[in-house]
Specification:
The chain has 2 domains: 95 residues, no CATH class; 104 residues, no CATH class. It is 27% helix and 44% strand. The chain has 2 helices and 17 strands. The strands form 4 sheets. A 6-stranded antiparallel barrel has the order 5-6-11-10-9-12. Strands 15-16-17 form a 3-stranded antiparallel beta sheet, covered by helices on one side. Strand 5 and strand 6 form a beta hairpin. The N and C termini lie far apart (83 Å).
């Protein structure tokens, strides 16, 4: 009888121990799952922000880097090709020439033209899209000469013809200028500022919060960027060479 009772006691203790272990283990498991989920979310946000910055830097014409800031002149690559009615055509050809009448033109470009939508004529083309970004009404485009490394203001006369607004001129290959961008690290955040070229109105946003450190370094023509986020145990970091 005593042996049976002792066996019963052992089984009871075992059952209670298992139940107690389950009671303790389940919250710990939930806590671990939550922590792992938070880590995964942070890693995803870090990777997304890293990719966005890298894509922006690939469009930079003039890139300036300090220990915690990045600024650059952004090329307008969105208007190199345009689409209308399922047709794709050249928006900005990237080549400026001068004809026999001393007029400047960019062959096969579509800087400004009219289309009809819902029985209404509206302006389309490179200039129309840039004016939407700038929230301004002026007839100018800004071209960066690959030869002189300078920016020129030109008035759009029609779909291909341009007129310099100042006395300085150039011929040859160019890049279409879109905006100035500024990426900065302050108060544990990476912030982003976008200012359409010639405009005073900026758009600002937070790219990433909870940033412990941000650094970008240059070795010859190669750039390396590293971003670390705060975490409970150790920082979550991403570092790699930028493909610019």
């Amino acid at each position: 009888m005593k042996k049976a009772f002792s066996l019963f006691e052992c089984l009871l203790v075992l059952v209670l121990s298992c139940a107690f272990a389950l009671i303790i283990f389940q919250p710990l498991q939930n806590l671990f799952s939550l922590y792992t989920s938070q880590q995964s979310q942070k890693a995803l946000e870090l990777h997304s922000s890293f990719t966005l910055i890298e894509k922006l830097l690939r469009r930079c014409i003039k890139l300036q880097i300090s220990s915690q800031n990045i600024s650059c002149l952004l090329e307008d690559k969105n208007n190199i090709l345009l689409q209308h009615s399922l047709h794709t055509f050249i928006g900005s050809s990237g080549l400026l020439l001068q004809d026999q009448n001393k007029s400047f033109y960019a062959p096969k470009s579509h800087f400004i033209y009219e289309i009809t939508e819902n029985n209404k004529k509206i302006q389309a083309g490179v200039l129309a899209q840039q004016l939407t970004l700038r929230n301004q009404k002026n007839p100018f485009l800004y071209l960066y000469s690959l030869e002189t490394k300078q920016i020129y203001e030109l008035e759009v006369l029609d779909d291909t013809r341009l007129k310099f607004s100042q006395n300085t001129e150039f011929k040859g290959f160019y890049k279409l200028v879109e905006a100035n961008i500024f990426i900065s690290f302050q108060q544990n955040s990476l912030s982003y500022e976008y200012t359409p070229y010639s405009s005073t109105k900026s758009q600002k946003a937070i790219l990433l919060e909870g940033v412990q450190s941000f650094a970008i370094s240059q070795n010859a023509s190669t750039y390396t960027m590293k971003i670390c986020l705060f975490d409970k145990t150790k920082p979550i970091c991403l570092e790699k060479e930028l493909l610019l």
